[in-house]
Amino acid sequence: MLPRLERVTSRPDDSRNDASDTTVLRPERFIAGGEAMAHEPDGKVVFVRGGIPGDEVAVTTTERKGGWSRAVVDEVMTAGPERVEAPCPQRRRGCGGCDWQELAVDAQLRHKVEIVRDAFRRTAKLPDATITAGAAVPSEAYRTTVRVVGGPDGRASYRADRSHDVVHADGCLIAHPSLRALIDTIEVPEGLEVTLRVSAATGERTARWDRRHGDVRGLPPDVAVGSDAFLTERVAGHRFRVSAGSFFQSGNDAAQLLVDAVRRLAPELEGAGAVLDAYAGVGLFAVAATDPSSYVVTVESSRTAVADAAHNLAGRRASVELGQVGRWRRPDGLAIDVAIADPARSGLGRPGAAAVVSARAPVVVVVSCDPVAAARDAALLHQHGYRHDGTEVLDLFPHTHHVECVTRFVAARLS
Q1: Is the pLDDT of residue 20 over 90?
Q2: How are beta strands 205-208 and 223-225 bridged, if at all?
Q3: Which positions are annotated as active-site residues?
């Protein structure tokens, strides 16, 4: 029997739902959101935070509804074959950033594939959808962007699991070494959140925070700050300007895997006449996934990202547009061969799907960072005449439950 887990985080107030009780469960599989599903003796479903399939765990119920409940692991009675000790000391102290560190690294992508398959079966009503495993980034030092918060002692910290408490961020397992050095150096006022970023290609670093709430001390002179701060990253042989206020992937390895997956799932990009890149960010796919001769249309709502995309697409035939994707419609006379969309975690939704469908592209590729949202979008596009033609699951966030997938759709009919 493993020792009782140290309770380092706060539990939701059980008195509000009058649900608190303790039982022993055997988690069966993971679900979207990272919890493990188990069944009580009467057959009711329990979503177990901290459980791993194959475990036998003592849990405390924290929420109970009519046909299901939620629980948190108090003690691992018998460890399943895929349970390991968390490799990062911060996680062992209660850091909430990497909620799958107790799951063996070589099992994580396989479970993520099953989560996506389940989402497409249940939400998209596509039980026979082709879902395949792609590649994974290295499991350590992969993040080139992190967000820290100042602790009571002024040290850069992360939020604790399910709590407003903090855990010192020094020695972070998944942070790029150059970010680890910053984490150890800076002094951050309590409660102030700071986004730190490094270029894996050039070593340039940026820091961004809301100066109305305090100032960060101890930043080395090479760290660019302020509204004009940016760095240069390299992906697929292309240089990208990335401003401190612009979204970028978790690291350049992640960006490279996504570019490769988009190219693989849309071979029509080779020689395409025109390509739509919706939710384009700094132009990652418009630059690195398209044929240099293609005309590209990018749509993005972030002003800093649009400025970066315009810089990164200099010399290309391109229209770089600032605006909400949901309001975009294909201009008359423009024939788009491939549409790429990389929406936020909530997915395309109806407005985004309508915009993408308006492109009337024979091929659509959607990059999703939430499995249920990916499945919802598949159902929406199906309603508009697009057939699901394969989803590739990538692990861009090892040690966490976060899932990235790239899905190909082809036009069977267009409404």
Answers
A1: no
A2: parallel
A3: 369
